[in-house]
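Long-time lurker, first post. I've been practising inverse folding by hand and with some scripts of my own, and I keep getting stuck on stretches where the structure tokens seem ambiguous. Below is the full token string for one chain I'm working on. Before anyone asks, I'm not after the true native sequence, just a reasonable design that respects the backbone. If someone could post their per-position residues I'd love to compare against what I wrote down in my notebook.
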């Protein structure tokens, strides 16, 4: 086998590997695209269920905390359907919580689809809210506020 034939064979094999790799990457992207929109995780107290595979428009999670702990990634947007969520939420990463969604079709109207986060189940964490972020937070021990990192 001469050098030119060897080069053609190497190029042919590389092209085959690149084609197979491209197909695999495309398949992964398509599968992940079906599971959830990038950066969007869906939550519905009425139609959702916490567990493996939740977080999509078709199969939303049921609770905000489960979603944060198990399905969300930094930078994600949690689309939260109308309903009352009786839970204290601990947020350990940068995410956006957006309420006011209809759990059927996921259209958003904050006046029509009221989303309530009711933290009455456990003693709440009180913080200094600037409209976008908790700047500092305090938790109560007895009657004394104690610094608490959120």
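-- Answer (accepted) --
I ran through it position by position. Result:
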């Amino acid at each position: 086998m001469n050098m030119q034939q060897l080069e053609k064979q190497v190029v042919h094999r590389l092209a085959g590997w690149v084609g197979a790799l491209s197909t695999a990457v495309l398949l992964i992207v398509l599968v992940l695209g079906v599971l959830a929109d990038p950066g969007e995780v869906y939550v519905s107290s009425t139609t959702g269920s916490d567990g493996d595979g939740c977080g999509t428009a078709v199969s939303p999670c049921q609770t905000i905390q489960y979603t944060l702990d198990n399905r969300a990634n930094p930078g994600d947007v949690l689309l939260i359907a109308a309903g009352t969520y009786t839970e204290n939420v601990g947020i350990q990463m940068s995410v956006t919580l957006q309420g006011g969604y209809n759990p059927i079709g996921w259209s958003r109207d904050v006046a029509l689809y009221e989303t309530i986060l009711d933290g009455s189940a456990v003693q709440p964490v009180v913080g200094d809210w600037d409209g976008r972020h908790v700047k500092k937070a305090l938790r109560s021990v007895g009657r004394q506020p104690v610094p608490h990192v959120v």
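A couple of notes from the structure itself: The helical segments are 3-35, 64-70. The mean pLDDT is 76. Happy to go over any region you disagree with.
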